[in-house]
Amino acid sequence: MRAEREKIYTNVEAAVPRRSGSPAVMRPGGIGNRLLAALPPVDFDLLAPELETVALNQDAVLSRAGDQIEHVFFPHSGAISLMIDMANGQTVATAAVGREGAVGILSVLGPSPSAITAIVRAAGTASRIPASQFHAAFNRSPAIRHAVQIHIRAMLMQLQLGAACNALHPVKARMARWLLHFRDRIDHDVLPLTQEALSQILGVRRTTVTLLMRNLRASGAIRSDRRGQIEIDRSGLAAAACECHGIMTLEVEEMFTMNMARSRVSVVPYGGGISVSESGDAT
């Protein structure tokens, strides 16, 4: 079964540190990752000595189902899909993560193998911390525990609505929803997605994705699809998508607005820029 899963994901690269050694993230006036940005300085400082900035390479696997979680990733840019691997080799995505969330953060609930495979779908950067160090800070800081609670609520909302969407909505609407999720997180109308990646995300055959692409191009929702680059028309894609995208986006924004209102640093919403300071030059 593991061998079958290995075949699903190609061109896999590890997340590569931009610079090893000294801490790589300094606390600026605004941080790309919203969970880190919402922490008061004293609580952020519990994490800062162990944080390092890493490049999230396209198709990198950050965690694999069945493996122990070694690091927690806080994306500043890029987009990640959380995948379920079935015994017969099929896959389906359950949630998307960008600068509003984290990968591996649920490891604070107790030591256990990862239930999902986290794959970078759009390259970016992240702050990475060893899971053991994050657990220690989690136990010391009510603010960090509160941030984790917000993240868990957002994930549960995605999982619940996603389950309903998968059962009730046609695959064309679901594909439009997923394209919008990725567009929200990379803030660009050209998405670095192949049809093979979309077939993995949706849990459908490649031929189904090809047909859906043709239909969405005919309606103007997709402007072009070639060489792993999908150019979308956001308004057209929103018209083709089900209501789940709008509901998920609104719910996440309300969670941050209500629960992070006392944040002492600027928080960057979808569609805004990022401000990340690094120690040393990027490579």
Structure report:
By secondary structure, this protein is α+β, with helices and mostly antiparallel strands. The chain folds into two domains: 2-141, Jelly Rolls (Sandwich); 170-240, Orthogonal Bundle (Arc Repressor Mutant, subunit A), CATH 1.10.10. Helix content is 41%, strand content 22%. It has ten helices and 15 strands. It has helices at residues 2-8, 34-37, 41-47, 131-140, 142-168, 171-186, 195-202, 206-219, 234-240, 244-259; strands at residues 16-17, 25-26, 30-31, 52-56, 61-63, 71-75, 79-85, 91-97, 117-122, 124-130, 190-191, 222-226, 229-232, 266-267, 277-278. The protein has a four-stranded antiparallel beta sheet. Strand 7 and strand 8 (91-97) form a beta hairpin. The longest helix has 27 residues, at 142-168. It is globular, with a radius of gyration of 18 Å. The two termini are 36 Å apart. Mean pLDDT is 83; it is low at 1-30 and 262-283.
Shape: globular
Low-confidence stretches: 1-30, 262-283
Strand order of the largest sheet: 1-4-10-6
- The helix-strand sequence is HEEEHHEEEEEEEHHHEHHEEHHEE
The number of distinct β-strands equals 15
Number of helices: 10
Kindly state the mean pLDDT as a whole number? 83
Q: How many angstroms does the end-to-end distance come to?
A: 36 Å
The CATH C-level name of the largest domain is Mainly Beta
Count of domains: 2
Helix content: 40-55%
CATH superfamily of the largest domain: Jelly Rolls
How is the main sheet built?
4 strands, antiparallel
Category from helices, strands and their pairing: alpha+beta
Radius of gyration: 18 Å
Tell me the CATH architecture of the largest domain: Sandwich
**How large a portion of the residues is in β-strands, by DSSP E?**
15-25%
What fold name goes in the CATH topology slot of the largest domain?
Jelly Rolls
